[in-house]
Amino acid sequence: MNINSLPIRRILTFGGTVTALVLGFAVIQSAAAWVVDAAPLTTAPVSATSIENKLVDEQARSADLQNHLSGLTTNADQLSSALAAAQAQIVSDADNAAALQQDLRHAKARLAALMKSIRQAKGTTVVTKTVRTVAGATSTPLRHDGGDDDHERGHD
Known about the structure:
This protein is mainly alpha-helical. It is built from 3 helices and 4 strands.
């Protein structure tokens, strides 16, 4: 028998392949046993019921947070509209303030003109005539500012 014969090569190839597979399986089993010994499982895994209960709790928490977020969104919308109204009021108040400032300037100008006319009037004579009627009698007292009172009443 010669190694060059085809049936012998097939048998050797098949034997080598089987040997490699058996050795690989044996190495994997020994590695698994080594890991189990190195890291023992001291706590039991969580049960499916426990996971389902936690899922229900988290869904309830999520719904509560969603409701809270909706409330915050509503509050934010209300604050936004209140801010817009306040800004509109500020613009309106600024317009009113400008109009009041203009009115104040006009009033100050009229006051200045009135004060000027009062100062000019102090320099002139003011005559006031009062007429009273008492049971058919008429008296006409005269008041004259800035002059001699004796001369007008006829007293010399």
